[in-house]
Fold:
Amino acid sequence: MIKKKKVEPLTGDSLLKKVRELETLSKEAKARECGYYTVTKNGVERVNMMKFLNALIDAEGIELDGKMGSNGQGGRSASYRIRVQSNLNLLIGAAYTKQMDLKPGDEFEISLGRKHIQLKQIDPSESED
Structure:
C-alpha cells in the first residue's frame, strides 16, 4: 500500500478556488482533494465533511453565529421591513436607529408618496426658531 502524504487542508480563497476547479466531483471528493480527510490506523481514509463545510462557510465570509452587540448580547438584526401596527402606527426599531447612528432628539422631515415614506434628517444648525 502506497502512503499518501497528508496535505494541509486548504482555507480561504485557495479553498474556494480549488472547489470551483473541482465542480464536477462529489462533495466528498472535493473535501478529500482539499485536504479534509484523515487516515485511520487501519489505513482507512475518512473524509471530514464538517470541517470542510465549516471552512467553506468561513472562506465565504458567512457569519452564522450572529454579531454581538456593543453590550455583549446578540439580538435581532434589521430586516428592512416593518408592518403597520394594530393602532396604525409604524415603528422604526432600534436596529435601524443604531445603524444610522441616530441620537435622542434627532429630527426628521416626513415626505409622503403614494406608497412610500421618505425621512430627511433636519440639520440642527438650520433649525427654525
User: Anything to note?
Assistant: Residues 68-72 have pLDDT under 50 and may be disordered. The longest strand covers residues 108-112. The CA atoms of residues 19 and 30 lie 6 Å apart. The chain has two domains: 12-60, 77-129.
